[in-house]
Amino acid sequence: MQTNLISRRDLLKAGGALVVSFTFASLPRDLFAQAARPVDSGEVDGLLAIHADGSVTLYTSKVDVGTGIRIALAQMAAEELGVSPSRVSVIEGDTATCPDQGGTGGSTGLVRGGVEIQAAAATARRALLQMGATRLNRPVTDLTIVDGEVKPRAGGTGVGVATLIGDRLFSLKVDRNAPLTPASQHVAIGKPLLRPDLPAKCTGRHVYVQDFTLPNMLHGRIIRPPSVDATLVSIGESSLRGIPDARAVRVGNFLAVVARDEWAAVRAATALKATWNERASLPGHEELVRFSRMAPLERDQEIVSRGNAADVSRRAAKTRTNLSKVFGIPQGKLRIIFLDGSGSYGTNGTDHVAADALLLSKTVGQPVRVQWMRQDEHGWDPKGPQQLLDVRAALDADGRIVAWETEMWVPNAAPGARALLSAEAAGLPQEHGTGSGAITQNGDPPYAVDNVRVVAHLIKDTPLQLSNLRAPGKIANVFAVEGFTDEIAAAQGVDAVDFRLKRLSDPRAIDAITRTAAAFKWDTRPSPNPRAKQGNLLIGRGIAYMRYKQMENYVAMAMEVAVNPSSGQIQVRRVVCSHDCGMVVNPDGLRNQVEGCIVQTLSRALHEEVTFDRSRVTSVDWRTYPILRFPEAPAVDVILIDRPNEPLIGAGEAATAPVAAALANAVFDATGIRLRTVPFTPVRVKEALARA
Fold it and tell me: Residue 245 and residue 251: Cα distance in Å, rounded?
């Protein structure tokens, strides 16, 4: 056994070039081809290349984390270039070859990445038509591009785009106003094309990040401290005797093991003896509500102020930049390449594990593959922020909502990158940002209200490192707003659908709710259900609506549940969701996203809760952090509202937002109780029933 000890000064003095592959596509073409090609989203050549065989390669920083955007990007480019989407491949998340279009979050894969590629393709199309006009001696207006060939609209001999430009540069700026193919002429956009990555994934041939290897590579495992902010006192070097080639690596309070064999590294991580000074600096999850209300505030932020409601009683290039800064490696010598992993619902531990691998590689002087174990992922990855909301409203004698106020206690988004665990333990200077996304949106109702005030009390500190978990903030905010809207309707003895429709004027909002109610076969009546009891179960239905960020997708969702009052178990029987995100690029991909949003958020609403005591996270496996299982998955009916002449809006997040609200409203309809704390575990359901 050999222990590598390195000081912070020596670490920062170390040089060399590193390639970091981090979670989450075998690459279709030599990445080092076309060395003169600009890596710039403002240049046509920065976003696409047409090759000598007529195939097309797209370059984007927007990565596919299970959202299916690879095929959608191909469809958007193919539509403008006049080629088959099967001839288009995508290189994503490689800082050496892909322009920085921003991270993949916020449903911006198509909204920004796709739209920019589409504009580049439209610019290229115009140039190809001009080249073809010169070659064919015909007016541009007489020509079109079909099946990769510039040809006369009336028929006749054409010329292939590969002949015109293959493996050469366009040398053109992207024209954001280049005319796009009219929706009425679409042949690629709007088609349910299959994802190109699925065959290899279904047959075990796809290269995931866990499969990636390099010559002379070691395997590493990190030894996490027994408590947050613990300091390392000593390690027992003799504890690794008998494990071949295993050695400990220590940099300050950072501790890891490396070995040539992965199983040896796993064994060494368990066997290595270490002494720590532990700390008890966390409030504990059971004290989180009190902590949120009582913690020092950074400031109050008024989110919405309309009228006088006071009268009522929240990426790869970014990863490279941060790693470069923290570890003192020039960006030109640091390359980040995205590879497929198991998926992502926001920022997980990818930045941290990349930093672990980089620190170990620099320290031992060899490439080190680091894979987190389950307890690493559950215990140390960033967490969704805690949210506490108070909502109140006032109605007049006619049932009009005349005033609405929402107060929320949420963590403050401090500027800067999230602190990397390994760098923090090694004592390296770094930023300590606490970004968790735009978590204050959708705190106001989408319905007609005379006076509205939404204020966020921004908490200065947070117990655990934060993540911009899928649909940051919106699930909880819509849960509060739509749950309270439902409560008002019930108090007035009014049907929940009718109550919402009478307070909406946007025809797209009305259309989404109306279609949902019709497909669900909604029975018009007040809640709770007077005929809820069916055998030993209580049956109910609920609805929720929201416009994402109050300016994007329209989503309405109805849900039927069965509640077992004896066990407290909630069974979601069926879900109907109408989803309007403007133009639909790939209906199969979109339907997949909406279904995934619903099922994943049901898991969050029914089961998922991070628990921690005064020292550490305690929900570190699938027993203590359960998720939805296959038998619990409901029947899901997705109604896609395609508006091909409207701008497209991303669909990776929006359908998550109404899920918890629709679920809670359905439970109220079944039982007459309001669930105000998630997840809706059997224990919480039984406690609420006992209090009723």
Answer: 19
